[in-house]
Amino acid sequence: MSKQQPTVGVISLGCPKATVDTERILTQLRTEGYQLTNSYEDADTVIVNTCGFIDSAVQESLDTIGEALAENGKVIVTGCLGAKSDVITQVHPKVLAVSGPAAYAEVVQAVHDVIAPPKHNPFIDLVPPQGIKLTPKHYAYLKISEGCNHRCTFCIIPSMRGDLVSRPVSDVLAEAKRLKEAGVRELLVVSQDTAAYGVDVKYKTEFAEGRPTKTSMVGLSEALGELGGVGEFWVRLHYVYPYPNVEEVIPLMAQGKILPYLDMPLQHANPRVLKAMKRPGNVDKTLERIKKWREQVPNLTIRSTFIVGFPGETEDEFQDLLDFLEAAQLDRVGCFQYSPVDGATANEIAEPVPDDVKQDRWERFMETQQRISANKMQAKVGQIMQVLVDEIDEQGAIARSMADAPEIDGLVFIEDGFHLQPGEFVTVEIVAADEYDLWAKPIAEFTESKDTSFIELG
Ligand code: SF4
């Protein structure tokens, strides 16, 4: 790499929201004429975007900072763990600057302090209109808000990222349009709390992309659905809490405007534990709602995450969670053993669950869900569905169905799919399944039909 231009290395840790922060920082630096590198040696300085959500993430962040200091020496730290700067500077006093999440201007200024931006900027036109993306060309995260108004007792995100601040809906839609024009086929809508989008601006209506649009999850989903709809352009909603307004996005899924997929972190199913977590706790209503949504959208995929071993969780309360899993028959489920996060109010609750009990509950949870998942996946064998190709390897094509978000859900392996291209929609027949993944054969090139009745019937 030529060293005529100042060059910045970046390491991005953590969740998709942090990835979007990194993309914004890189876009700004590239616009100013900085070169980007993934080598410590070529970099004039290295930015580490940290995660501070759980203890293991804190440790990974601190280790990464240590490695960057050892290999390069000029390290700028940002992101969630940066909100607790003393944690970083106590371990790594030589870092050059520390800032919290979404602190784009501070990071860029810290880079300027290490190495000034080039005066003449011949690279400005090399920044694509959609900005710098860290995801493959055919999918992108679309961040719609910062922060969160909840105060879940196990979580310190609000203390790091602050209360909910929604991006103007006109900005969000303009970005979505730019991404589509740049070749993105799937948008992953992310935030801390997608169903609460717009609550801070009282759901104000803005003129966006030529028409009045409400700053709300429903208004945004309607507008994103106009960008093509399932069959041409996938829109996937993440971090949707079970508020009543979810009812209003279900018809958009039934009409094929957005993907029939809800990522809904429920965390537990026992009312007392949910109360101790400060989460909305009417489990019967959640079950009722799930049933109603599935009547409207039979191929709806519901993904959720849960915590076992929360302080004070009894065996009976854990059993309620297993009963809920059996009743809800969720499609995709993640489970974490409770781990105390420095600064979380749940640490003040007495009665920690012993580690061996947590492990035992986690294993029983996973056994239950694996059985449910295996049955659900087996029911897909023989179905015909639309998939999106992610990559080609020596075995064939690796794709995802509408039920699979990148990184967190399953894959669809397409035998003999060597002729396919990443970013291509293909119609396949499912020929085999295990608990998480599917195997398929292509049956025809996908036509631009929006008739979702022939797409993923399960
Ligand atoms: S909803 Fe709860 S878990 Fe999610 S970011 Fe807000 S406080 Fe944290």
From TrEMBL:
Keywords: 4Fe-4S, Cytoplasm, Iron, Iron-sulfur, Metal-binding, Ribonucleoprotein, Ribosomal protein, S-adenosyl-L-methionine, Transferase. It is found in: Cytoplasm. Residues 378-444 form the TRAM domain. It catalyses: L-aspartate(89)-[ribosomal protein uS12]-hydrogen + (sulfur carrier)-SH + AH2 + 2 S-adenosyl-L-methionine = 3-methylsulfanyl-L-aspartate(89)-[ribosomal protein uS12]-hydrogen + (sulfur carrier)-H + 5'-deoxyadenosine + L-methionine + A + S-adenosyl-L-homocysteine + 2 H(+). It comes from the Bacteria. PROSITE patterns: MTTASE_N, MTTASE_RADICAL, PROKAR_LIPOPROTEIN, RADICAL_SAM, TRAM. [4Fe-4S] cluster 2 binds at residues 148, 152, 155. Catalyzes the methylthiolation of an aspartic acid residue of ribosomal protein uS12. SUPFAM superfamilies: Radical SAM enzymes. [4Fe-4S] cluster 1 binds at residues 15, 51, 80. This is Ribosomal protein uS12 methylthiotransferase RimO. GO terms for molecular function: 4 iron, 4 sulfur cluster binding; aspartic acid methylthiotransferase activity; metal ion binding; protein methylthiotransferase activity. InterPro entries: Elp3/MiaA/NifB-like_rSAM, Methylthiotransferase, Methylthiotransferase_CS, Methylthiotransferase_N, Methylthiotransferase_N_sf, NA-bd_OB-fold, Ribosomal_uS12_MeSTrfase_RimO, rSAM. Residues 6-116 form the MTTase N-terminal domain. The keyword Cytoplasm applies. One of its GO terms (biological process) is tRNA modification.
